[in-house]
Write a structure and sequence with these properties.
257 residues, 10 strands, five-stranded mixed β-sheet
Length: 257
Amino acid sequence: MKIAAIYDIHANPYALEAVLEEIKKCNVDLIIVGGDVVAGPMPNETLTLLQNAPVRMKFILGNAESEVLRHLNGEKINGLSERADEEARWVSKQLKDEHKDWIRSWEKTIILDTINFGRILFCHGTPRSNVEIFTSLTPKEKLISIFKNVTVSNVVCGHTHMQFERKIDNIHIVNAGSVGMPFGGTGAYWLLIDNSFEFRRTEYDLKATSQNISKSNYPYAESFASNNILTVPSENDALKMLTKIELDYEKTAHNNS
């Protein structure tokens, strides 16, 4: 079974459309959509694209979807930043009712049995949380704690918007990168799983996309167009930001335990 893993689309339908076109050429049997689909400029357009795609798909809740659902349920939003909280409120107002109902059906994690790699666990952030962060710099001792209850040999995740691989004991961990809001380089990043775990990058029209997004009613349209499409944070800057969020989350989780 040939699988495409597409993560962190962030409501960028133009990047998604380009990736779906490339996936079609690969004769993929299944697409895993790994969460954080809706947090961005065009959530309804992005969800409609996924609904109409001809390839079979399975969906995972990202932290963005979880925050939107919390807000819709009248619960307190608990995002990773003030902007994430504001974005959850905005997305909640934009979504069609059919899309809200659909998102409620998405899974927390997915396990697939494959011929080449046995069982593969797909999650958004970590197997135990779609908010928890780890990166290529996270100490091995911490990763051992995060993955100690995992019983599969391969884990695919996203959440931090950069492709990388880690090996923790007998577990191979692969980050699929971000389709719609990447760090470290422009374009759309995803993962193809066939005879190997193959990092993929798809080019698309960045100028036209930035112009279209700038015209949207998204409250962060200009910033997204300039800083997440035409240019993106460097790998070093992104790792500094993510490491800070990772440590802040760790402190908050410790204080709440």
